[in-house]
Amino acid sequence: MKVLMINGSPHVKGNTRIALDEMVKIFEKEGIDTEIIHVGHQDIRGCIACMTCKKGKNQCVFDDLVNQVAPKFEQCDGFVVGTPVYYGSANSTLISFLTRLFYSTSFDKTMKVGASVVVARRGGISSTYDEINKFFAISGMPIASTQYWNAIHGREQGEVLQDEEGLQTMRVLARNMSFLLKSIHDGKEKYGLPEKEEFHRTNFIR
């Protein structure tokens, strides 16, 4: 099993990376492979609703990191997204990346386990946590939780190492996610995936 981890911070070795690394320690003990991809420093534009990805191309019209990560996303069993908080929201570069990644990929994401990791000096955690989780929820992905919000506090680089509760929260999150990954893996072998119905899209325009 493998967990793909996204570092949505502009800082490659900042507090978001430290939080993700705390999870990696647990995943390694649980025998789960990980890969961290640094997104937050990239030049990634937003979706322009051109619908090219839905017209047979099956990838985003902008051939950048989004298309490079898409095959890794398809192959992974778990998906962790880490971000700092800016004005009560995730890093805008990360949101552009996630919007295009989730929309342009047509593969079934059902039962891939998702988890958000939020880093803040003080406030804006709950709104950012909700913002990231919506990508998972709309895709049929179970959301891993922990003993509190999936959050850790710190501003200057390395300050999160002083947040003992936050570090513990990351470790518990990784253990809970590992349990979900293994349970879903065994469940799929024994029971298969849930039955799917044809999707009926309703537009409220008359």
From TrEMBL:
It holds the Pfam family FMN_red. The keyword RNA-binding does not apply. SUPFAM superfamilies: Flavoproteins. Residues 1-151 form the NADPH-dependent FMN reductase-like domain. Keywords: Flavoprotein, FMN. GO terms for molecular function: oxidoreductase activity. It comes from the Bacteria. InterPro entries: Flavoprotein-like_sf (IPR029039), FMN_Rdtase-like_dom (IPR005025), ISF_SsuE-like (IPR051796). This is NADPH-dependent FMN reductase. It comes from Massilimicrobiota timonensis. The lineage of its organism: Bacteria, Bacillati, Bacillota, Erysipelotrichia, Erysipelotrichales.
